Fold these 2 entries.
Entry 1:
Amino acid sequence: MSFEHIINDEQLIDLCHRLKSADTLALDTEFIREKTYYPRLCLIQIASEDVVACIDPLSISEMQPLWDLLLNKNCLKVLHAARQDLEIFYNLLGEIPQPVFDTQLVATVLGYGEQMGYGNLIKKVLDIDLNKGHARTDWLQRPLSAEQLDYAADDVRYLIQAYPVLVKTLTKLQRNDWLTDDFNALVKVSLYEVEPENVWQRVSGKTRLKGQQLAILQQLAAWREQEAKQRDKPRKWILADDMLVSLAQHPPKNRDQLQRLRGLSENLLNRHGDELLRLIKAGQSLPKEAWPSLKFKAHLNVEQEALADSVMALIRLRATQNQITATLLATRKDVDSIIQGERQVDLLNGWRAALAGQDVLDYLEGRLALKVVAQQLVAQAIPT
């Protein structure tokens, strides 16, 4: 299918009118986020069975017809690696387009591999080799060439064609409901909300801190997050992680000590020096019970390590039997957590529980045994 380049309000209204009755739409975006806090939306690609379009949000004054289309809950939105695209729409709309169907997640439960790229998926499903020549395009530049637009259109042109093939394969393997929980998780607002008081947990180098130092880091990181949002600048442009850690680890007591720290620009000191000192004092004044803490899990002992090894063998067995990768079911970290008594683990919920999680619990609780039969590992229920 050829594609349409939508560059004005009238064209967008006409396109959305033609797509409003579609029950399934393929969707993708091109964006830039290197110089901003919020991703800058540069292009939106959309396709039905009959229409492929590249929509230019930089040249259209009223995007509401498209937003109404995307927020129609009677229309399934098909995306590949959906999370970043959905984050963009949430930032713009305050809502998340739903329901969604993420073909990257589908590829994992069909045994195609984890984190499969779009090009590899299309090759696998449709046996089509996609052009990779414009992967590094600056999508903010205008005008976009015909080749760039055609490249972008491919992201939905073939996605809408791959969708029914994937559904047919899911049905054949009786795996249609395996990803219901995963798809529902993708449209939860909490996935895209950033709580300033919790962003300290993302700061690189935080493990060098403890106690009151973490309280100071929490104050500084929360301020940086709010400042980055307000100014729409990357966090590191406001204050780099290593400087946050340095300020928390060796907190200056006054302006003179603050100015002696390497890495703080004169502009930052002039604009925010007093605020940084106030935040440091705020962290220092918090009572001990209010200090945040790093959560470190205890290491497994030798017996637990051996038990975890055997659980991983059971998981690999179930994965092989179902032609998927073992890490799609659970990682070693997941297994270690289960051995230590944790039950809020993906393996023990949804389709993973039905496929292997319940077997893991039965094994740990003595209702299932691993045996070798004819040089093959088998899992057998233990008679009660």
Entry 2:
Amino acid sequence: MSTLRELKTRIGSVSSSEKITGAMKMISSAKVHKYEQALKRLLPFKTQIKSIMGHLLNTDSEYSSPLLEQRAEVKKIGVIIYGSDDGLCGAYNINIFKHLIITLADLRNKYGEQVHFVLFPVGKKMARPVAKIAADDVEVIVPEGVDSKMEGKTVNDFTLGMQKRFTDGELDEIHVVYMNFISMSRQRVKSETLFPVSAAALNESADMAGANKLYIFEPDPNRIFNEVLPMFVLSTMQEITIENRASEQAARIMAMQSANDNAKKLLDELRLEFNKLRQQSITTELLDILGGQVER
């Protein structure tokens, strides 16, 4: 049975934990708002890029770009997996890793068992589990200088490096697995095709532009398209990176809230046990005093 001193120590420890989880929740909440603002700042740029591409696609011109090239035979596929560098975010990394396994299985079903994968984990907490699935047909490369907290320039450099791998023929397709941020309380794991640029993304841009007006393109539309398309890919990766950060912090909020609730529940139970034990101790002392008086 616990002594009063032991219970008092445990109560102090749980109380401190409750304060820490509460503080971490507040910090994560502030970071989510920060990343939401970053997404809002990125939106006008991406919207403008989509609008330009939409107007180009709505012309009668034909477009060609190495970023659109569909390989006749897909032998080597790159997969970028966004995770976190810090812990205490619940099942955030586990859910992304599970989706990665499903994505690899789907790609094997689509292209055959002979397909070779090259995995690029982003974040220390993702690099560890991904390293464990390395095999003859699964290569793992941890990108140097790249993490879940990387700045915009690093994101661009990383994206351009992946683009070069695709255009040089080193990889036939490149996919991204990440946590899509919908709201503070809702995130979902998502996988997108980065290269070749999907027709769905281009059609979305065309639909967004609506009916094409009479524009005079200078230089020709195809050259403009080849200048704008890489910018579209860069903006997509910037958005994915920020969404992943926001989702990580939102997951951490939920984890800290759960830990905080559990700490409160445990604290209440310990205080109740402490009060019972203290009351029992007081009662015992009173009985001893009364017993001593009767003996006299």
